[in-house]
């Protein structure tokens, strides 16, 4: 997976990224894949599907809840996505199907353990070019 | 700002402190409703998210707030120090065996899970009883509980206020070390600064010691995550303006505030139980490596502190006794002599404070002081404090053999991944001696002994 418009950010205790996309759906999809890349850079497993439905009070909370839900899959069953298909999306709700698989640490080393997706310095916004976001992770 | 921010730092630390956003974060904390005294920054301060790491803030129990961000994701991350009846010379040649045995017995690394599988009802007992559950299930002795903050059980825990996600993340993680800066370290007493206090703690020069640093694992992370959302809505409901959403909070007396404290107490207890169980695996590792009995190892808890926690305490504010909710995020309680919360064995000398350094240098045992009670709500620093981001440390480690560098210092290191070793290399941290010198110079803690590592397992 290659996410061209993703820039890794340095933070004393943690790690994060900024990213741009052509639209909000692509932004959410790229954020999920970017987080998966932070966790396990060489992972590209497919064939196991998970559906995700998340609601939140606003778009920023939606981004945190969306990524937290995907991290929950990793934390509880070592599952990571390699592809994301957004089925339905509006400002405070997202439904998607993930195509991925379980990470086998012996085969693909896990680089980062994400404790949580934070609200710190977070933004999710529409831009003239599409959409952009900044997300910091507690690791 | 409702109160000033106060930083404990030596002049040579200021450049590093000013280089990140930690002071701005201490200033933001000072804007929250009901804060009293000062928004404190300890010398190991560095930028967190919302609250700085190395921050202490107390809020009036009547009209102040409680904030999950003021505790952090790793609720009750903390440190346990154990002493042994062994001396350095007794184990010097067996260090690799001890450390390798610990590594195989203590599940470590990203997403590590242990061999303990608890039923839902047993998991709820862990959340209510903490280390007491571990002791009653054969992990350690009842004497251990006397030497743990809150005696290893934070009261008021209500498992019904914890989400299914948190329970699922905690399942299988009890008795595991995790990753990042968590570690188990075999070391020895290298230097004694205060003979009387050291003797009271049963510590003496060249004695072998053990430090366990870990927290509430995925369970605590999820509790924090869940309640940040709940308290974000509460902040709006109660009209609290937030300079940063990560500072989301609710009045202590509100239903949301009380619910958070009861859920947080579950994670505090998870963590107390976790360290109690890891101690049992460590004991086994010593027995296996030295082919000896528990009686000849004499592993015993000196003390255990929490450094990510919010607690209801009574302190003197403006000359009056006041009930406050003290948030310590990357800061340690450091109660002075005579306080009821200090174990009877240590009450006349003050509460032991454990300050781990990076894996290549040294750690300290300190004591809380009366001055800490007067100045910092009985609080002090918690460790060395990061100097470099993890990715910067990795860049710096490129082309070097950090593992060998650590081994060349006479420290046997067994880690889950090279990536952890690089991120956690000694120069990624401040020199803990500078941090300790600052709190000791300010009189909010007092040096007792310095510990030197011999072997380390890193998650």
Give a quick set of tags describing it.
heterodimer; A: 139 residues; alpha+beta; Archease, Possible Chaperone, Chain: A, domain 1; 5-stranded antiparallel beta sheet; 3-stranded antiparallel beta sheet; globular; B: 459 residues; tRNA-splicing ligase RtcB; 8-stranded mixed beta sheet; 5-stranded mixed beta sheet; 17 helices; 17 strands; 35% helix
- Range of strand content of chain A: 35-45%
Give me the oligomer status: heterodimer
Specify the overall morphology of chain A: globular
Average predicted confidence as pLDDT of chain A: 93
From the 3D structure, determine the CATH topology of chain A: Archease, Possible Chaperone, Chain: A, domain 1
Write the layout of secondary structure elements.
The complex is a heterodimer of chains A (about 140) and B (about 450).
Chain A: E1 6-10, E2 15-21, H1 24-39, E3 48-55, H2 59-77, E4 79-90, E5 93-102, E6 116-117, E7 123-127, E8 130-138
Antiparallel strand pairs in A: 1-2, 2-8, 3-5, 4-5, 6-8, 7-8
Chain B: E1 5-7, H1 14-19, H2 22-29, E2 35-49, E3 51-60, E4 65-66, E5 78-87, H3 88-91, H4 95-105, H5 120-129, H6 131-136, H7 142-145, H8 164-170, E6 183-192, H9 195-201, E7 207-214, H10 217-237, E8 250-251, H11 255-290, H12 294-297, E9 300-306, E10 308-317, E11 320-329, E12 332-333, E13 352-355, E14 363-368, H13 370-375, E15 379-380, H14 390-397, H15 402-408, E16 412-415, H16 418-423, H17 432-442, E17 445-458
Parallel strand pairs in B: 1-2, 16-17
Antiparallel strand pairs in B: 2-3, 3-11, 4-8, 5-7, 5-9, 6-7, 6-17, 10-11, 12-15, 13-14, 14-17
Helix pairs in contact in B: 4-11, 5-11, 8-10, 10-11
């Amino acid at each position: 997976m290659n996410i061209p418009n993703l820039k890794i950010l340095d933070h004393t205790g943690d790690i994060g990224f900024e990213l741009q996309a052509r639209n909000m759906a692509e932004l959410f999809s790229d954020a999920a894949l970017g987080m998966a890349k932070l966790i396990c850079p060489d992972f590209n497993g497919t064939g196991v599907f998970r559906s995700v439905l998340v609601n939140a009070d606003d778009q920023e909370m939606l981004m945190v809840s969306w990524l937290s839900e995907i991290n929950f899959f990793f934390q509880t069953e070592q599952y990571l996505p390699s592809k994301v298909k957004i089925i339905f999306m509006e400002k405070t709700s997202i439904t998607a199907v993930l195509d991925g698989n379980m990470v086998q640490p012996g085969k693909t080393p896990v680089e980062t353990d994400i404790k949580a997706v934070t609200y710190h310095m977070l933004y999710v916004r529409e831009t003239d070019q599409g959409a952009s976001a900044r997300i910091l992770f507690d690791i | 700002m409702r109160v000033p921010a106060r930083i404990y730092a030596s002049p040579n630390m200021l450049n590093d402190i000013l280089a990140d956003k930690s002071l701005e974060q201490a200033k933001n904390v000072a804007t929250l409703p009901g804060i009293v005294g000062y928004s404190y920054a300890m010398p190991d301060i560095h930028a967190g998210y919302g609250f700085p790491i190395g921050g202490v803030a107390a809020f009036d129990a009547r009209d102040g707030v409680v904030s999950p961000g003021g505790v952090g994701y790793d609720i009750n991350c903390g440190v346990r120090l154990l002493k042994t009846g062994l001396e350095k010379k007794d184990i010097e040649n067996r260090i690799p065996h001890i450390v390798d045995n610990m590594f195989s017995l203590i599940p470590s690394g990203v997403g590590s899970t242990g061999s303990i599988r608890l039923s839902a009802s047993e998991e709820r007992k862990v959340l209510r009883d903490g280390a007491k559950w571990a002791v009653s299930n054969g992990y350690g002795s009842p004497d251990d509980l006397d030497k743990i903050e809150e005696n290893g059980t934070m009261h008021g825990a209500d498992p019904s206020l914890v989400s299914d996600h948190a329970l699922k993340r905690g399942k299988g993680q009890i008795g595991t070390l995790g990753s990042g800066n968590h570690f188990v370290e075999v070391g020895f007493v290298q230097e004694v600064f205060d003979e009387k206090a050291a003797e009271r703690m049963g510590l003496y020069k060249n004695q072998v010691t053990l430090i366990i640093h870990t927290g509430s694992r995925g369970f605590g992370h999820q509790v924090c995550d869940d309640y940040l959302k709940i308290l974000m809505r509460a902040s709006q409901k109660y009209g609290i303006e937030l300079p940063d959403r990560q500072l989301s909070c609710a009045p202590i007396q509100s239903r949301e505030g009380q619910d958070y404290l009861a859920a947080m107490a579950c994670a505090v207890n998870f963590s107390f139980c976790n360290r109690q169980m890891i101690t049992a695996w460590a004991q086994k590792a010593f027995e296996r490596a030295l082919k000896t009995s528990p009686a000849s190892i004499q592993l015993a808890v000196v003390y255990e502190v929490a450094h990510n926690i919010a607690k209801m305490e009574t302190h003197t504010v403006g000359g009056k006794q006041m009930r406050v909710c003290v948030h310590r995020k990357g800061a340690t309680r450091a109660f002075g002599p005579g306080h009821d919360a200090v174990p009877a064995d240590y009450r006349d000398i003050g509460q032991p404070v454990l300050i781990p350094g990076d894996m290549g240098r040294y750690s300290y045992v300190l004591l809380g002081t009366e001055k800490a009670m007067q100045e910092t709500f009985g609080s002090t620093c918690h460790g060395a404090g990061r100097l470099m981001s993890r990715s910067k440390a990795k860049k710096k480690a490129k082309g070097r053999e950090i593992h060998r560098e650590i081994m060349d210092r006479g420290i046997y290191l067994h880690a889950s991944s090279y990536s952890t070793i690089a991120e956690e290399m000694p120069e990624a941290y401040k020199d803990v001696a500078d941090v300790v010198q600052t709190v000791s110079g300010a009189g909010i803690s007092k040096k007792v002994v310095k510990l030197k590592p011999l072997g380390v397992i890193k998650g």
